[in-house]
Amino acid sequence: MQILVTGAAGYIGSHVVKQLLEQTDYEIIIIDNLSTGFQNTIDTLKKLDSTNKRIKFYNQDLSQWEKVEEIFKENDIKEIIHFAAFSQVAESMTNPIKYYSNNTINTTNLVKVASDYGVEKFIFSSTAAVYGDVTSENIPIKEDLAKDPINPYGSSKLFSESIIKDVASINANFKYVILRYFNVAGADIDGKVGENHDPETHLIPLVVKTALGKRDSIKIFGDDYDTEDGTCIRDYIHVCDLADAHIQALKYLETNPSDIFNCGYGYGYSVKEVVEAVKKVSNIDFKVDIEKRRIGDPAVLISDNTKIKTKMNWTPKYNDLELICKTALEWEKRI
Ligand code: UFG
Asked: What is the pLDDT of residues 176-189, one digit of tens each?
């Protein structure tokens, strides 16, 4: 059976492909334009394929939808996991069209082709950014909370969610699972794949880079929030647990209707706690600067993960901040 994974040369996609190779028999069709992902990640994934024939890679931009359609003609794709997207909140504020073009328009084209070619399962990579600036009485966040994104990145994903839902409503054969990721972090436990963004903006990779001397200091964006230590609180989920949610979502759709799930641990850590965890696991002290707040950062984002834990067969295995930081650190030493 064939599955299409878009964006597999990126951070989360590569971890999912590794698990698909290890845990399933799928033949994996990859579409990635390598705009933010890396050819060497594709090479690594191919090396992990002991049969040497389970991965077929197309270096293809999704905007060229006639070429994408050719890929559907050449193959027999019945399932899709769609990661390919831009994901930097700050960049989306200064270049919204880039985000709506790639994240929303290209997803529309992909969903159209998927529906036309009889795709039965569509797993979509969405984000906690669809909820926007959540007030404290709505923490932890449930899936049915009103969606009110505060940046084009979140809006571009929310539009895509609507498109997927609307197509499913007129095509009974087309089922979806939308996964809304909280703060994804860490790296593959075996150290084969990991996080590599250019530029890097996420907290944990920046802190581990600082521990390893690749940066002079880590800047904490604001210590005057209404939280216990004044820094923002986030729900950090290990990328391998998140990858497993995609595998479980495919199984879930065998017998269940389409649905939407938060992906997080339901517990939050402050920026200062993350910095301390990296100091502890690395046994390295490093410079920490307190800066002013970063625009658009909500004080607290924590998932309510009751739905995914009760409805899907998803049991997190790496729910441990130090383990998350340690795997990120080990990966950072390799790159
Ligand atoms: N932070 C710092 N210093 C840094 C980087 C980050 O203090 O150098 C802080 C941020 O201010 C924030 C926390 O660390 O309080 C986490 O920041 P990240 O940039 O790692 O992650 P975000 O919470 O901003 O964003 C993540 C995903 C987005 C998603 C969003 C949902 O990366 O894709 O969660 O709100 F949209």
From this structure: 999 999 999 999 99
